[in-house]
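Aim 2, interim progress. The first record below pairs a target sequence with its structure tokens.
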Amino acid sequence: MTISMYQASVPRLANVLNNLIHILDKAQAHLEAKKIDPTALIDFRLYPDMLSFRRQVQIASDTAKGVVARLAGVESPVYADNERTFEELRIMFKTPPQSPRSRHANYEL
């Protein structure tokens, strides 16, 4: 049985990104329930030399985008990574691929 690079990677990346969406949802629900300012978690670092939570989410998105671009044989687009809220981070993942706002647009495998 042969397996393509697409079959080996894209479904796994989709699973990781879907799990990350659920983490974002749970984090926001917790912050709202405890009445904590969302920026406290968005900019949180577990250790001083660690990147912020927001930046790690952006890197996960950029990594998935880069893998799919390489598999499709196209240039990986560059985005500003200027998301500052939970909603903006979720939009990164939930926007349909045909939308110009989607970070994962223009890939048809």
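The second target in this work package is listed in the same format:
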Amino acid sequence: MRKFHVRKGDTVKVITGEFKGREAKIVAVLPAKSRVVLEGVSSGRMRTLRKTRKNPNGGMVERPVSVHVSNVKKVEAVANTVASKKRVDTKKEDKGKVEKNA
């Protein structure tokens, strides 16, 4: 099982690729493919479905977007202002304590 820097429910920003600069919430993590499924990023990509009883016309349907884990970074909201975001870095000190820096 792989360990990633993001989890389901985290708010992330896409740092590279087709959806660069957009912020979204993680709906699912796919560890086998090293990808995360994002909510709030309209893909513009559609998939055709054949005619069924549920969908008698068939046609194009939107799908959620999956992005490689290396193409997203975690974004944490600042407590005082909702509009500003900051990047969170962690580093270990000598005695094993973890310090979070903005």
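The chain has one domain: 11-83. This observation will shape the mutagenesis plan for the next reporting period.
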